[in-house]
Input
Amino acid sequence: MPTTTAAPIDPPVRPAEDLLRRLLDLLRDSRDIADLSRARVRRAFEVDFELDEGRLGFGERLCRDWWSSIELDPDGALGPSFELAFRPDCAGTFPSAAGICGMDYDAFAAELKAMGFEHESLLGENGRVVHENFDRDGLSVIVHTRGEADEPAGKRAHACVMRVIVN
Output
């Protein structure tokens, strides 16, 4: 079990809500995945990306329980892809998502729909949502969500964006 210290956390370069808004701005002006070039991604997010084997990557701690990661892989095995994800500080844990839910799933989805993306939920067993698909000619956006917190029930039903994959 991770220990919590009283040490302050440096504020992130880009909070979760800002990262999601920047991604939406990038998608708004993109026709296909090729439009998510290294130069455009760098300009959109204004962070120092690391270059590793052709992929751009950036990550930082957002708050005590959450990290962000951004990756652009222009030459992936399944074609070019972009990913923005929020990950718990400790793998396998399920902290409250309040720290990453400044822009919740409903607001993010509404922006995509306003840009002309068509929406479809991919359902698994018992009607459980596996992920959300948004498609527009030339672009596919997959959104993974989770509830903001386990309790109370209202927070469990409040969906936060965990991961966005663009291809």
Notes: The radius of gyration is 16 Å. The first strand starts at residue 50 and ends at 52.
